[in-house]
Amino acid sequence: MKRLIAFLCLYALMAGSMRAQTPTGDVLVRNATVLTVTQGTLESTDILVRDGIIAAVGENLSAPSDVPVIEASGHYVMPGIIDAHSHIGISNVNESSAPVTAQVSVGDVLNPYSISIYRALAGGVTTSHVMHGSANVIGGQNETIKHRWGIIDPEELRMAGAPRTIKFALGENPTRVHGRGTGKRPASRMGVEYVLRETLTKAQRYQEEWNRYEQEVRTNPRAVSPAYNGQLEVMSDILNGDILINCHSYRADEILMLMDVLKDFGIQHITFQHVNEGFKIAPELAEFGAYASIFADWWAYKFEVYYSTAYNAAILTRNGVLTSINSDSGELNRHLYHEAAKSQKYGGLSDDEALALITINPARQLGIDERVGSIEVGKDGDLAIFDRHPLSVYAVNRHTIVDGIPYFNADRDADDMRLAVDPESRIDTVILHDHHDDHLCLHEGELDLYDFLTNH
Amino acid sequence: MRGLLSLIFAASALLSVLNHEFQENFTALTNARVVTITQGVIENGTVLMEGDRIVAIGTDVEVPAGARIIDCTGMTVYPGMIDSGTQMGLVEVGSLSETRDNTELGTLSPQMKALTAVNPNGVAIPVTRVNGVTTVLTEPSGGMLPGQAALINLHGYTPSQMFAGFEGISMQFPATGRRGRFDQRTDEQVQEATEKALKLLNDTWNSAELHSRIDSTYQARPESGRKPAYVPSMEALRPVVRGQQALVISVNAARDILAAIEWVKERGLRNVIFTGLSEGWRVADQIAEAGIPCLVGPVLSVPTRPSDRFDKAYRNAALMHAAGVKIAIRSGETANARNLPYNAGFAVAYGLPYEEALRAVTINPAEIFGVDDRLGSLEAGKEATLFIADGDPFETSTTIHHVFIGGYQISMESRHTQLYEEFLNRSPGLENRDGP
Amino acid sequence: MRLFFGFLLLAVLLPQQAAAQVNSGDEVPEVTRTFALTNARVVQAPGRVMEQATIIVRDGLIAAVGPDIEVPFDAEEIPADSFVVYAGFIDGLSHTGIPEPREQRNRERPDDPGDPPNEEAGIQPDRDVHGLLDPEDKRLAALRNAGFTTVHVVPRGRMLPGTGAIILLGGETANEMVYRARTAMFAQLSPARRMYPGTDMAVMAKLRQLFTEAKRRQHLQNLYSEDPAGLERPPFDPVHNSLLPVLREELPVYFHTQSALDLHRALEVQSELGFPVVLTGLNQSFDAVDKLRQAGHALILTLDLPVIPGTSESYEETPADSVAAPPTDAPEKLPEIADPGYDTNLRVQSQADLEAEKANLEKRREIEHRKYLANAADLASSGLAFGFSTLGVKPADLMGNVRLMIDNGLSEDAALAALTTTAADILGVAASMGTVEVGKMANLVVADGPVFEEKSKIKYVFVDGKRFEVEQPARSGRQGRGDQADLSPAGRWSFTVSSEDGNVGGTITIDGSATNWSGTITNDLTDETADLTNIRLDGRSLSFEFSLPELGTISVSVVVSEDSFDGDVTVEGIGAMPISGSRTSGPESYHP
């Protein structure tokens, strides 16, 4: 569509100018065991990052003397971990007032002060796909961020150039919040399908109206445009394939339903999130080309995940479904390497297959695999350096590097890494985390108390 | 809702066609590496079991004729792991209240017994034990005195078959910590609630002590006819007041732990266990001095304070141990209590000596619960509750090949393995999509 | 507990008019509108001082300023030897004079929370502050007593509460007060409750929707007014229509931001939609100075400053020169905290390090606190001019906070500019206000010394040529009290909280001394008692709080005069109602 929405242009310009400012660095990692993920494991190998980009991978690399060196002999370097499902670093999670809220975006409320970003970084995570919650059938747009800890301009958290994505949600959450909460559809999985089809059809109509107007205005400058609708603008970008769908889903039937709906509307790209029953329909997922982003072993916290298996990753992988393991949690995201390792216990994935679950596979799902997800020349200098093989439970991350800049250093970082402290706060506030609270998707809550206490 | 429930239980019954073989005669685990916990590691040894007991361990054990032999070449035998904090058997599906039996109404219900409500067919039970966790403490929750936690073995068809010999009164100590990220009470409100709870606790304890005194005197002089009033909650507290039963106090924030130590001292309680201890490291010296054993965890959790180092929860167990506190590790999980060994593994990665981590999931909890004559190590005379693995059980790459609980060789199936078997190569795959 | 159920009832049935504080007729009438302030030191504008000058105020204007000016015969002469005269202060943004809206508790959610009525969602750009002004609001006089003569008031509300007005703190009716109406469109990232837009991100989406659609409608209106033939009439609704002056750049948006995150978000939305903007609040602008400099918008800085819990409001000064350069071995990353007392590498290895941790965390908090105190100075040294906003600040704290900013590096001239000339520029009233010059409005502050000195007292405030004598705290008091600076609130008081729907009485008892007050409040209705907390006495302003389970914290703020008090009771989220009381016994020194 050629409609000129002034703000979109401005936005693009701004994003462009911001990108130029994002700091990048140089670093030489020496003598490491390099787990490239896509090109095997290289012993006693160096990695040179220049201006934030991997410039060389090989033995005995040389670099100018001003390039910082990390001696990594005996250590393991893996690509920076990518969390395909997270809710860290944002002030809002759910706009739960309506079953469809495509117009909102968590990218508008990034919070670079959130300590959760640093904690994820400490676990080797360099990129997070931060998502709207699962209260709505069509929730808000998500944002792919890089963990540039310490840079307090929210714009600088964005991974510039990453494709736009949006959250959908099926099953218990949207039917509880709306149908059984406010009495608005959907109250059942039948209603969920109806909300999807209705909204997508409205978006088609909206596109048609604007196309008609754009035709007419060429010959008639007094043509009257249709009313602007920010929500249907986003929906129509989905129809055009400009926004990738990431759908919270659990049960096999609802996943099949969404694939049918997408087929009818000509939408090809879909990543199912959680997808605990994905294993049941792995052949269908593979045939459609759908992606799966799952928990390593979370189950039984609600009825729709009662029939789960920790072998999900293995079954999906063996059936040819591109699969990632995500956290959806400010706790799990600190040890995604360990979550990936569980795929070896449950189904015996190889080291590269297991590591791919948290690197190149989520990168492909998010459409950023040209830039991140493996250690290859030309890709972003996003690395995590562990003291042992990262699939070992005893592995401890020593350095996390983003864009060639070491943002986490286990030896050097102080305890208190907060970027801001509310002068009116107590110094000894204690927050006891219930494991289950960390899974924000399971809640409709909007506020991260940590962020609240530290930043507001 | 009845439909839903029957669906759940019908389905779990269908899936539970498992065979657990009781080994009446001798079973010998030969050529094994034996990690006894209490008596070192025996290379190339034999563990001999008869019925529900271990009868011999060593390198020179004579295997009786006719014994069933499991060749454990390349394998290691460990005592079954004990998870000292779960809601196993009490909670089936977290979000469905109809499937949760961990909470009774009222804040003072110490007479409630978790063991009563343990569902031996809970779907998480097989899932947990095939990972080597053979014994768990299952705890009631909600209110100040939610009831009695029970130690259970993860095999048996009735709660009494599962019972592993320990019941303790659970207590939630008045807490100043915030309960998760959605707790947005002001500091004053937290303080007020804490003081109110402490008053309730003291009032309750005064009554319990009085009730116990009346009972003692009456027992000595039944002719007085002054039988104590029938108050079930006070009767339940009587053995705790008298030091005959353990009080398991859940406490996390540093200042609450100090308050709890003080309270325990004031009340002269001798049989006390702490559980939770998120900030135990901050007051580890005082805990060590008080000599109260601690069930610590989950290790895999976030720090309690935004100013804390990112790995503080991982390090907590190590720091407490270093200060001389006796620790056991708990997962705090139910469906994923199977992750207990990984909690222990993370504690090792962040400073807990490996041997101590092993003890923290075996002999330490057994001693803390007073069942070390039966469980917690591989020794002749103890129960045949053990597992055989091809490596370190804390590592995810390790596979557990056999599990024995009380002499029963446990089926290695669970819902997770069954679904794997069924769906790895689903049949039909994409055929017959328009119906047969 | 059902403590003070009576309050709950009253709170729900909030009075429409505060207790009638109508002119009692006891005041001595003014006989002339001409005044001569003689022999004063006149600070005409920041950096422009005239010694021993006379100012003639006539018919609301400054008729003359200078050293050798004759006092006209019709003037009331005010000898101002040793006094300092300034232009009246201008409050760049506040809700002064706007009563707290009545918040309906347990209001039913709208039928469709995803598309609620605009009014419920806080989308009221068509509303104007004029109709909401309450000339009886006590904060008007309190702000005037602090030296303010002009206030830019905007409605209370959520994302788009309405348009603002510049008012003078001298009129007795709303009409008399308004100097200029419809001065600004007020906006803030303030979501609706339990309906759309229920989050900041939804507020941003809603702003985009409203402005983009308004732009389209503007275009349609243009087409239609050129020639309606053949065109369907453009849609009309007051919300979109009221945004059109903003789109035409005739009306600026005053975008209120309370955190650095708010600020970034406001800048983002503004740069997308391109409306003219004045950024207000800016509590954490220290984290976005560069971006503000690039954006070049006008700024109105809050006078609110944080207070470290458990400390008094007076801040222990840390001289700027004691801040050392960062140690060379410090981490190269943030947080870059350069302070000799702070250990940037502290690692708490065990319990043994907890004391060091505590000291470091307290130091850190102090360092962060200083950022807020130095915020104004940072903006000024970055070349960013700003006015001040009193929004959310107690009048009694205003000058103290300005002094804190000065202590932390803001020059007195810059502070005065923020209070006068810059605020006048931003508000577009520099031709008539902001300096002491002939022809300008006679808005003046007369103090008995340099106004930024702590011991100086404001004696008179002139608003629009009208003189207001500032009553000093009763330090000169009545006989027998000597030089005691503050009244003592100690003793037993009977009080009445009044509303249209009835009154509640009760007893307040206060004990203790200046450093440590304590007390209780009891009501006659239920006869239950609550403890008073945060009891503070500042001059004659007494404030305290108590809490009720049903209502949360209730704050009381009254002005005490000898044995009586008057003020407001504020229930969080509900509103305020008047309270008055009289002392029935104590303190002992009172009745010898």
Which tags fit this structure?
heterotrimer, A: alpha/beta, TIM Barrel, 8-stranded mixed β-sheet, 6-stranded mixed β-sheet, 12 helices, 18 strands, disordered C terminus, B: about 425 residues, alpha/beta, 2 domains, 9-stranded mixed β-sheet, disordered N terminus
Secondary structure category of chain C? alpha+beta
Tell me the radius of gyration of chain A: 22 Å
CATH topology of chain A: TIM Barrel
Name the CATH class of the domain at 92-103 and 114-302 in chain C.
Alpha Beta
Question: Can you name the CATH architecture of chain A?
Answer: Alpha-Beta Barrel
Question: How are the strands of the largest sheet of chain C arranged?
Answer: 22-21-20-19-27-26-25-24-23
Describe the sheet with the most strands of chain C.
9 strands, antiparallel
CATH architecture of the domain at 92-103 and 114-302 in chain C: Alpha-Beta Barrel
What does the average pLDDT of chain C come to?
A: 85
Topology:
The complex is a heterotrimer of chains A (about 450), B (about 425) and C (about 600).
Chain A: H1 6-21, E1 27-35, E2 41-50, E3 53-58, E4 69-71, E5 76-79, E6 81-86, H2 115-122, E7 125-130, E8 138-141, E9 143-146, E10 164-169, H3 172-182, H4 189-219, H5 230-239, E11 243-249, H6 252-264, E12 270-274, H7 282-288, E13 291-294, H8 312-318, E14 323-325, H9 336-345, H10 351-356, H11 360-366, E15 383-386, E16 397-402, E17 405-409, E18 431-432, H12 449-455
Parallel strand pairs in A: 1-4, 1-5, 6-7, 10-11, 11-12, 12-13, 13-14
Antiparallel strand pairs in A: 1-2, 2-3, 5-15, 7-9, 8-10, 15-16, 16-17
Chain B: H1 2-15, E1 21-22, E2 26-35, E3 41-50, E4 53-58, E5 68-71, E6 76-79, E7 81-86, H2 114-117, H3 124-129, E8 133-138, E9 147-153, H4 159-162, E10 163-172, E11 178-179, H5 187-220, H6 232-241, E12 247-251, H7 254-266, E13 272-276, H8 284-290, E14 294-296, H9 312-322, E15 327-329, H10 340-349, H11 354-360, H12 363-368, E16 386-389, E17 400-405, E18 408-409, H13 415-423
Parallel strand pairs in B: 2-5, 2-6, 7-8, 10-12, 12-13, 13-14, 14-15
Antiparallel strand pairs in B: 1-18, 2-3, 3-4, 6-16, 8-9, 9-10, 16-17, 17-18
Chain C: H1 5-12, E1 34-45, E2 48-58, E3 61-66, E4 76-79, E5 84-87, E6 89-94, H2 138-145, E7 148-153, E8 162-163, E9 165-168, H3 174-177, E10 178-180, E11 185-188, H4 200-226, H5 238-247, E12 253-257, H6 260-273, E13 277-281, H7 289-295, E14 298-302, H8 354-373, H9 375-381, E15 386-389, H10 395-407, H11 412-419, H12 421-427, E16 444-447, E17 458-463, E18 466-469, E19 491-499, E20 502-513, E21 516-523, E22 529-531, E23 533-538, E24 541-548, E25 552-561, E26 564-571, E27 575-585
Parallel strand pairs in C: 1-4, 1-5, 6-7, 11-12, 12-13, 13-14, 14-15
Antiparallel strand pairs in C: 1-2, 2-3, 5-16, 7-9, 8-11, 9-10, 16-17, 17-18, 19-20, 19-27, 20-21, 21-22, 23-24, 24-25, 25-26, 26-27
